[in-house]
Design a protein that fits this description.
alpha/beta, four-stranded parallel beta sheet, 16 helices, 8 strands, globular, binds the ligand C=CC1=C(C)c2cc3[nH]c(cc4nc(cc5[nH]c(cc1n2)c(C)c5CCC(=O)O)C(CCC(=O)O)=C4C)c(C)c3C=C, binds fe (ii) ion
């Protein structure tokens, strides 16, 4: 009623909480593709150069973006001329904001802001909006269930550095959800979606069992082995839990496997690669497959183009006859409930921390083995980072710039 809203505005909410949803962002039109790729490759968490070579990062990013753009543009063109990631993330933010405000303490008000790492709305735009809205504290929730240096790590580094510089008051009262890869709500939704496909596929007769193939976005092996990225461990934990929960729902002889997709560049990435895994499965005589994208929470190029078009063709050529792909979580009501749970859990169950270092360290301690202070790990990485590869890239770049050859093709980008 009018009087209720008048009294609400007379006594403004004393505690307005910003919820920053972190994601990578994506090109909205084909002309955004190249600048988006530039932003991505200019990120030192995506292309890790030794400190001595950080000076060439932007030149290298420019070159790689230029080289990759035509192929990427074609992929984005095949899914409608841009990425739907921003639309999904914005809609997730709106639904989460409504859900959070539904039954919270009346002195609180939640405001959700999308903070993208490589495209609009960028991190600084999200921070500026939170300042405009006079938010007094913040919860940072990555829309990546699994922690990787290349995703959550990079987004946190950007957000916290800018928060420290522009909003020290907010910085002093924020908390971070480092990862939620084992959250029962998340695991249950995936198990439900997989079980739905299994029941449906069971109607198709076949001598061989159905195969459930979890496909996670890959990272270079060096992230795991040298930099101590917990990403692989996090992915494996989710797969184990979802397989268990699905077996509890559908008792049959289905097999559960894991592979990694979206390799970029010349270095060794986590194996097995999804396309190899599909051929291997087909070679075992299996005709029915359920592919489950697990490191993403909404549809975008990696699901709509890479899985639905490229990998499906690989699978069918190799002899798979019945192909199902589990949808991304998108706007699933259970998923929004899980996000709400993560925000409340971060606010009420975990201590609010006040330095960026403590936040990032947190993400590593969540499960079994603490990995120490991230800044320490990083210094190690700088030292360990393959000097040979870096020098080779620099040489290729030089050759390319001076002689106008295509030396960088040696690196597959
Ligand atoms: C958990 C998810 C992701 C990890 C880990 C990740 C690491 C990673 N990615 C690249 C390079 C590229 N990624 C690109 C797009 C892209 N990546 C993710 C997720 C993860 N990346 C998503 C959801 C998307 C799609 C965004 C969209 O537009 O919808 C791209 C651009 C697309 C292309 O040209 O293929 C590149 C390039 C690296 C190098 C890396 C780890 C070091
Ligand atoms: Fe990626
Ligand atoms: Fe890709």
């Amino acid at each position: 009623s009018a009087s209720a809203s008048a009294s609400a505005s007379a006594s403004p909410k004393t505690n307005r909480i910003a919820v920053f949803l972190l994601n990578l962002g994506g090109p909205e039109t084909l002309k955004d593709v190249e600048p988006f790729l530039y932003n991505l490759f200019a990120d030192p968490d995506i292309i890790r150069l030794p400190a001595a070579m950080s000076g060439i990062q932007t030149a290298l990013a420019w070159l790689i973006a230029k080289r990759r753009a035509p192929r990427s543009r074609q992929a984005y063109d095949s899914i409608g001329g841009g990425s739907p990631i921003t639309r999904f993330t914005t809609a997730q933010a709106e639904l989460l904001e409504t859900a959070l405000n539904e039954d919270c303490d009346s002195s609180l008000e939640f405001k959700c802001y999308v903070a993208m790492r490589y495209w609009h709305p960028f991190t600084d735009e999200a921070l500026a909006k939170a300042a405009e809205d006079d938010c007094r504290s913040a919860v940072v929730l990555p829309l990546y269930p699994h922690f990787s240096i290349s995703t959550t790590g990079s987004s946190l580094r950007a957000l916290l550095a800018e928060m420290q510089a522009s909003q020290p008051r907010l910085m002093a009262r924020h908390t971070v959800v480092p990862s939620w890869h084992q959250a029962p709500g998340y695991v249950d939704i995936l198990a439900r979606l997989v079980a739905d496909e299994l029941r449906d596929l069971a109607k198709v007769p076949s001598e061989k069992p159905i195969c459930v193939l979890f496909s996670a976005h890959g990272v270079p092996v060096s992230y795991i082995e040298r930099a101590g990225d917990p990403y692989k461990r996090h992915i494996e934990a989710t797969v184990r839990l979802v397989a268990e929960a699905t077996r509890a729902r559908v008792r049959d002889d289905t097999t559960y496997e894991l592979s990694f997709q979206s390799r970029v560049g010349p270095v060794e990435w986590l194996r097995p690669y999804t396309d190899d895994a599909l051929v291997d499965i087909a070679n075992r005589g299996i005709k029915r497959i359920v592919v489950v994208p697990i490191s993403f929470v909404s549809e975008h190029i990696e699901t709509l183009e890479e899985i639905d078009i490229e990998y499906r063709e690989v699978a069918e050529t190799a002899g798979i006859q019945h192909w199902r792909r589990v949808p991304a979580l998108n706007l699933d009501a259970d998923f929004i409930r899980e996000l709400k749970f993560q925000v409340n859990d971060a606010l009420y169950a975990k201590p609010v921390v006040s330095t960026s270092e403590a936040c990032v360290v947190n993400s590593f301690d969540l499960d079994d083995r603490p990995l120490g202070v991230l800044t320490g790990v990083e210094k190690d990485v700088e030292r360990l980072n393959s000097k040979t590869a870096a020098v080779a890239i620099a040489l290729a770049l030089l050759i390319e710039l001076l002689a106008n050859t295509r030396a960088i093709h040696l690196f597959g980008v």
